[in-house]
Design a protein that fits this description.
Length: about 140
Amino acid sequence: MTAGHRVSVASELFDFYIAELLRRAGLDAVAYTSNRLRFDDGRAVAEFPHAGGCGRCGNCKGARVDEQRRDGYTVVMVGDGYSDRCGAKAADHVVARGDLLEWCRGGGIAVQSFEGFAGLARWMHAASPNGGSPRSAPEC
Ligand SMILES: [Zn+2]
């Protein structure tokens, strides 16, 4: 958490993959939720400890957004794909690219586009100096 922000990752991927991606990026300290894969007698067993929310997602990002909002945070949802839709519907602000961007535009969800994470980080820093909500479009 920096400057009153809480950053977390919600993923529909498995835990070992997300942990490795965060480690490689030097972001081991970032909290995340994901689906889980464990091995039992040589068999892979998928687990969905964060199921719930809409009842269709393995890790419903809408439910993750609701948790953050209950904790008093204004939530900026950043995403790009199908599994981000529940989060986009629940978030205070949506920043998207790819399929999610088009889906939001088609469904009347206010959305701002982004291209790369470096530009997104600059926008987040500039738009919310007091931990408040973003006020302008990202320049990514
Ligand atoms: Zn969902």
